[in-house]
TrEMBL record:
Gene3D superfamilies: 3.40.630.30. It holds the Pfam family FemAB_like. Transmembrane segments: none annotated. This is N-acetyltransferase.
Length: 399
């Protein structure tokens, strides 16, 4: 990956598209989120979504999960007012590949390179390895969003990047990208929605009789001879992380070859996120055999990583889906986001929802080709989502 060109603050200011008639704003590219004081970053990030918080992002940086040799170069973009006050920020990364993103653009890369272009490096505005919806423009006021986006565009142009991509954008921010000329792309995830349930049985009551029986059978089979524990914060000890590391490695090697996170990442997340981590572990004869790591947000429970060293029927469903529902109900959280893909989640009460990414392509011809592709793809995704919505396990009138 080529080194980024140096630039003066004024150069960034002009290329961010901030006019002299507007209040003076300066866009800067920082050398990692760790270069920004935690209080300043978190004032913009808020507390609802833990993945855009300083603690999570710097855990990835400091553990070596992103950085040299990973293909993820942390380049957060910030915007300051004339007094040097931080008014906007975005987590951004120079990427030398398309791994760990969960919004697939390999076909775009192939097409652009067949036409003689270089697709990589590109700019990724995202939380690495985390297909969870959240804010991507961390702003004091929405009026500062355009300056962040112009700065991202300028970074691409100045450094020969083909494109910039913001993934898993929360619904409230999608229009900010579209209004600034970025192309929107839709996909589907499966989330569980808490409609005020007081218990798992109350949730089961809104399912069809057959599905209700199926879920009860699955839970009984998964829990047979198993002890399940929910560990939060300080209750997660080094021995638990050691066990979970083995689970994570097993899943990573089976699914994508090399696990994205280093062992140190789990220690740092445990230290920095504290009670926002929920580790659900299964024990058989006193031995930890499986686990699911969740992150607790202000309004959602996010299922992130799962793994096991001993196969047991339905244990994956139990730890990742049913125990997550139990945890969300107990905490009064509005939804469970259980990760990317997985149509099998529908039979467990998870429903299809739209996820949205936004894309800026530097080359006009490439941009038009992608725009045409997205028009057709968007119609297909909408039709799929409508079809799937009619196949949920809920009784009529209860979804």
């Amino acid at each position: 990956m080529p080194m980024l060109r140096s630039r003066k603050a004024q150069d960034c200011h002009e290329r961010a598209g901030v006019s002299d008639a507007a209040p003076a704003l300066t866009a800067r590219i920082r050398d990692g989120v760790g270069a920004i004081p935690p209080a300043e970053w978190d004032r913009l990030a808020g507390t609802d979504n833990p993945f855009v918080g300083h603690a999570f992002l710097t855990a990835l940086e400091d553990s070596g999960s992103v950085g040299s040799g990973t293909g993820w170069q942390s380049l957060p973009i910030t915007v300051e007012d004339a007094a040097g006050h931080l008014v906007g920020a975005m987590p951004a990364y120079a990427k030398g590949h398309s791994q760990g993103e969960y919004v697939f653009d390999h076909a775009w890369a192939d097409a652009f390179e067949r036409a003689g272009g270089n697709y990589y490096p590109k700019l990724q505005i995202a939380v690495p390895f985390t297909p969870a919806t959240g804010p991507r423009l961390l702003v004091e006021d929405e009026s500062h969003a355009a300056a962040l986006l112009r700065a991202a565009e300028a970074l691409c142009v100045q450094n020969g990047f083909s494109s910039a991509h913001a993934t898993f954008i929360e619904p409230a921010q999608q229009a900010l990208f579209a209004d600034n000329g970025w192309l929107l792309r839709s996909d589907i995830q499966f989330h569980w929605t808490n409609r005020g349930y007081a218990s798992f049985d109350e949730f089961l009551a809104v399912l069809t009789s057959r599905k209700r029986k199926d879920l009860r059978k699955e839970r009984a089979a998964a829990q047979d001879g198993i002890t399940i524990r929910h560990l939060v914060g300080d209750a997660i000890q080094p021995k638990h992380w050691d066990a979970f590391w083995l689970f994570y490695q097993d899943t990573g090697m089976r699914k994508w070859g090399t696990p994205y996170l280093t062992r140190a990442a789990f220690d740092l997340m445990g230290e920095r996120l504290g009670d926002r981590l929920l580790l659900i572990m299964a024990f058989e004869d006193g031995e930890a055999i499986a686990g699911a790591l969740n992150v607790i947000g202000g309004s959602a429970l996010y299922g992130r990583y799962w793994g096991c060293i001993r196969n047991k029927p339905f244990l994956h469903f139990e730890l990742c889906y049913y125990q997550a529902i139990d945890a969300a109900i107990a905490r009064g959280l509005g939804r469970v986001e259980a990760g990317a893909q997985g149509g099998h989640k529908m039979a467990r009460g998870y429903e299809p929802v739209e996820t949205v990414s936004a894309h800026y392509l530097v080359d006009p011809g490439f941009r038009q080709a992608v725009a045409d592709f997205l028009d057709a793809e968007r119609r297909g995704v909408a039709a799929d989502r409508e079809l799937l919505a009619g196949r949920t396990p809920f009784k009529l009138g209860d979804r």
